[in-house]
Every structure is written in structure tokens, then in C-alpha cells.
Specification:
With about 400 residues, this protein is of the alpha/beta class. The protein has helices at about 5-10, 35-40, 50-65, 75-90, 90-95, 120-125, 145-150, 175-185, 200-205, 230-240, 250-265, 270-285, 310-320, 345-360, 380-385; strands at about 15-20, 70, 105-110, 130-135, 140, 155-160, 170, 190, 210-215, 225-230, 290, 295-300, 325, 330, 335-340.
Length: about 400
């Protein structure tokens, strides 16, 4: 079988040395051999998708503790599907009318600070269903009284986003408070934990649905996972006979998500930590490295006297060959933050070499853009596909 590096060369694309983590812009996580094997096997046979999704439901339930689960094409699709399900329930007639919400509760309450941009706004994904988004609170504050004041018979669901992009300095009601307040009105709470490592705490906290990107932490092919209360998960699945048809997931995505879920929740969680520590050790042989806030983050200090900013250095790394993408930059402290979850030993060695070389001969980047996973400038977007 052709390996990834050979395939990239044949297709005329650069293989990226990933020190950024699992963002969609880099194709999220890599896929393990057992997931690849399962996907290859299912691609060679025909199965009934409803039956396959029922098997996925059992697997997701078994590993997450939720009553039920299903697989979607992505976490962003799961946002739209969850909003739709909250409005229609399992009413096939209502499902067939969306995005016309006449006669349905059609408001989704979302804390203003949770309307983050992950490549598109969370609120836009919700509005695809036909729902009207009601934002509460501000970018820095949302309390229980904001939520209580927004809940009436027109509200179909409350959405709660667990993301590092939510203002860390803000003061916001907790998920437990959200569940208690919404639950008193029999209004479901949907948690979006797209890049989260474990949905179980959200299920245990009482969320009616928890959704995540299966291809990020868990290493599935591109797919999303919905888990939670049986009636609402069923309503989500039934959206495949409505607006969800435009977001359908194939047998390869379903099986890949199932096997990745089994692997992720059955793994030794210390294994990834050991790998990341070993890779940080490789980096430290060529660079000045200190530990980050978690074990898979390594922070590289740029030597004093280096004549470029951390941002410019990161852009030079991205533009080089092979490209190196870092997780974030800190110009004030002249540091590069590296996320080592997707790297392997050879990658760690190559990343260290490229960073050391670029520090010695930084030059100026051809394009100086903010360094994060939404770095594309408007010019680059409008020049696609002829932007290189």
C-alpha cells in the first residue's frame, strides 16, 4: 500500500510536519492501523446503513455511558442536526418540513461567548436547521438569570460550548447550572465539545446530548459523534430523512468512528503522555524547551538576538519545505508552542531540525498572517485554487 509521504508526492502536495495538534485545517488526527483496517474492510462489502448505525449506537453507548449514540459526517453537522432534533423530536412530518419551523418551538439559546468561530460560527451551524439563535449574556459574562430570562415555550434547546476559544477570563454559568435551569423547564441541553478528549463528564453532568469530532482526539476518519438521551439521539438520527441528508455519513465514517471510539476509550491514557514526553526530549536536544500547561505541549524559547518575531518565525516554518505548523506563538515572550499529539519520532526529529535551521536563518515570510488554525487571509481565500 502506498504510504502517506509517497501519496503526497504523487498528488503534488506537501506533507506537513504537524506541531499544531488536531485542527481541521491540517486534516485533524492521524488514523491508527486498526481503524484503517476496519475502514478498508467495510468499504469492500454492502451493509444496511440503519443497521450499521444501530451497531454504532450500541458501541457508543457502551464506551461513553450514554443511553444512545449515532455517527454524523462531522461535529459541525451534529450542531445542525441536534438543533433540528430538539425542534422536531421524532415527528417525521416536522422533520420533512425543516427548515420551515412553523408550529414548532424554534429558538436555541446560546451564551454569547459560546458563539465561537471554528472555521464558521457555531450560531450559523445551528441556523442551518431553521432555528433562531437567541444569544444571552456578553463576551465576558453569562449568569443563571440570563438563562432563566430567556426560557419560554418558544425555546427548543440550550447549547453549551466547551472550547478553549471561549473567553478564559470571563465569568460564565457552569454546565451543571445550565442543566438544572433548563431541566426545570424540560428543555434539553446540548454540549458541543468538538475538540474534547472525553464526552463522559458531560453525559454524567446531565447533558441531554454531547457532540464531538471523532476525527480529532479519537483518530477516526472525518466524522462526528452524538451521544446522550435515547429519544433525542433517535430524533437526531431521523434527521437523515430530512436536512441531515445533505450531511450524511457513509459506512466508512460510521465504522471508523466505532473502532476509533473503542480504541480511544480502551487505551492506556498514559501512553500518549509517554510519547509526548519522549518527543519533547528529542526537541530539547536541539532547542531550548520548557513544558507547557499539559504534557503534550512543548514550548520552544527563541534565543535572544534572533532578529524576527515568533509570529514571523512561525510563518517561515509554515512556508518552508517540509512545512512545520506550530500550535501558537507568543511574541511577547518570543516562544513557539508545539502540540505533539500527532507527531511521531521521525517527525519530532525533523521538527527540531527545521526550527533550529529557521532560527539560524529566519529570513522574512512571504505572507505574514496571524498564526492560528484560521490563519487564511481574505486574499488567499479569494485566490483559491491558484494561491501558490
Amino acid at each position: 500500500m502506498e504510504d502517506g509521504a509517497d501519496l503526497c508526492r504523487r498528488l503534488g502536495v506537501k506533507r506537513v510536519l504537524n506541531a499544531m495538534g488536531v485542527p481541521t485545517i491540517l486534516g485533524a488526527n492521524t488514523v491508527s492501523e486498526n481503524v484503517r483496517s476496519a475502514v478498508d474492510s467495510i468499504m469492500q462489502v454492502s451493509v444496511e446503513i440503519d443497521e450499521l448505525q444501530a451497531a454504532a449506537c450500541r458501541a457508543i453507548s457502551r464506551h461513553t455511558g450514554a443511553e444512545a449514540g449515532c455517527v454524523t459526517s462531522s461535529c459541525s453537522a451534529a450542531l445542525a442536526i441536534s438543533a433540528a432534533a430538539a425542534m422536531t423530536g421524532s415527528d417525521l412530518s416536522a422533520i420533512g418540513r425543516l427548515p420551515n419551523t412553523s408550529g414548532m418551538p424554534d429558538q436555541v439559546v446560546l451564551p454569547a461567548a459560546h458563539d465561537v468561530n471554528f472555521g464558521a460560527p457555531v450560531s450559523q451551524m445551528i441556523r442551518i436547521s431553521g432555528a433562531n439563535v437567541v444569544r444571552i449574556g456578553t463576551a465576558s459574562h453569562c449568569d443563571g438569570y440570563h438563562l432563566k430570562g430567556a426560557l419560554d415555550e418558544r425555546v427548543a434547546a440550550v447549547f453549551y460550548v466547551d472550547s478553549g476559544d471561549v473567553n478564559p477570563a470571563g465569568s460564565f454559568l457552569s454546565l451543571e447550572e445550565c442543566v438544572e435551569i433548563a431541566g426545570s423547564k424540560n428543555i434539553p441541553v446540548v454540549v458541543d465539545t468538538a475538540a474534547g478528549s472525553d464526552v463522559r463528564p458531560f453525559v454524567e453532568a446531565g447533558a441531554d446530548l454531547a457532540i464531538t469530532s471523532a476525527h480529532k482526539q479519537m483518530g477516526a476518519p472525518t466524522s462526528g459523534m452524538i451521544c446522550g438521551k435515547l429519544d433525542l439521539v433517535r430524533a437526531c438520527y431521523l434527521q437523515n430523512y430530512g436536512i441531515g441528508r445533505a450531511m450524511k455519513v457513509g459506512k466508512e465514517g460510521i465504522v471508523g468512528c466505532m473502532v476509533a471510539t473503542e480504541t480511544w476509550y480502551g487505551r492506556d491514557p498514559r501512553g500518549q503522555d509517554r510519547r509526548c514526553r519522549a518527543f519533547a526530549g528529542i526537541l530539547s536536544q536541539a532547542l531550548k524547551v520548557r513544558p507547557g500547561p499539559d504534557v503534550c505541549t512543548a514550548i520552544v524559547s527563541i534565543p535572544e538576538g534572533t532578529d524576527v518575531s515568533a509570529r514571523a518565525l512561525a510563518n517561515c516554518l509554515r512556508e518552508g519545505d517540509p512545512p512545520v505548523w506550530v500550535n501558537r506563538v507568543d511574541d511577547a515572550n518570543q516562544e513557539l508552542w508545539l502540540d505533539l499529539r500527532v507527531a511521531n519520532e521521525a517527525d519530532a526529529t525533523a521538527i527540531a531540525r527545521r526550527i533550529a535551521e529557521t532560527i539560524r536563518n529566519p529570513g522574512a515570510p512571504a505572507e505574514d498572517v496571524p498564526y492560528h488554525d484560521l490563519y487564511w487571509s481574505e486574499r488567499r481565500l479569494l485566490e483559491w485554487p491558484a494561491w501558490r
